[in-house]
Specification:
The protein contains 3 helices and 11 strands. It is α+β, with helices and mostly antiparallel strands. A hairpin with a 2-residue loop joins strand 1 (6-8) and strand 2 (11-15). The relative contact order is 0.26.
Length: 139
């Protein structure tokens, strides 16, 4: 079951422990983090891309963002964000989530690809799958 968007500080956030590990955004030794990725969040209608700034090239990031913008016919905010320890796992801040149509309490399915998380609102699953496919081909 997908986690739900929650309020965190002045914005919105999502618990992403398993997807963040699967995407390589978090590296751990004995359950202690040794690396938390530097991330940027791209917001589109019904879609958020969480990109590892250090492990996805600018060229590949542009390809992902362009594909998402063309498929959703939108782009809202592009903002550096943080991935941090929260509770028993990891949480990602989601600037632009409200602009993208996400609200507190929304279920937010999160799919991982190498160094990328794709968070899709209901109705955006096909676009999310396409973005994940592109990223897997890039890696």
């Amino acid at each position: 079951m997908p986690n739900k968007i929650k309020r965190s500080g002045d914005g919105l956030a999502l618990q992403v422990t398993k997807p963040a590990r699967a995407a390589g955004l978090v590296e751990e030794t004995d359950d202690e983090p040794t690396r938390l990725a530097n991330i940027r969040v791209f917001a589109f209608d019904g879609l958020l891309l969480v990109v590892d700034l250090d492990r996805i090239t600018d060229e590949n990031t542009v390809e992902l963002a362009t594909s998402a913008a063309l498929d959703t016919v939108s782009i809202h905010r592009v903002t550096n964000a943080s991935l941090h320890i929260a509770g028993n796992g990891y949480q990602v801040q989601l600037p632009g989530a409200a602009d993208a149509g996400f609200n507190v309490g929304d279920r937010a399915p999160c799919t991982s690809a190498p160094n990328l998380l794709v968070i899709a609102a209901e109705g955006s699953e096909r676009v999310a799958a396409d973005i994940v496919t592109i990223r897997r081909e890039q890696a």
